[in-house]
Design brief:
about 15% strand, elongated
Length: about 130
């Protein structure tokens, strides 16, 4: 009886450990993929990481802080999954709440690529009519 209880306890502990480990491995793989994507995509001709990506992120964050009031509900409409994630991060850092439903949003946020801009990109904000 005692041996069966010990085996059952160990089995439960093993299942809980696996249940905790699987999401961690998935998230670690996603983070590694995102980092490799950005490192490969934003390299200069010399093979060094471009400073342009970092300054672009800084400027997008500054623009977001200036143009979107803290606490506003924002829907991020970005087709590139990596940039969608980065815009979500920037929104959180600037006190902006992102929503998954465009109908609940106050503002729709898009990344606009334009070579005439200092870093080659900016934000396009569209107020949602209620």
């Amino acid at each position: 009886m005692r041996d069966a209880r010990l085996v059952a306890t160990r089995l439960v502990v093993a299942l809980v450990a696996v249940a905790a480990l699987v999401p961690a491995v998935i998230n670690a793989a996603h983070a590694a993929h995102a980092g490799a994507y950005l490192a490969a995509r934003y390299r200069s001709a010399s093979g060094q990481p471009e400073r342009r990506l970092l300054t672009a992120m800084e400027h997008l964050g500054e623009q977001m802080g200036r143009e979107i009031p803290a606490g506003a509900l924002v829907y991020v409409d970005e087709p590139d999954g990596i940039w969608w994630f980065r815009l979500q991060e920037l929104a959180a850092m600037h006190g902006v709440t992102t929503v998954g439903d465009r109908g609940r949003a106050d503002v729709v946020l898009r990344r606009r690529v334009d070579p005439r801009l200092p870093d080659g990109m900016g934000l396009e904000l569209t107020a949602v009519a209620r």
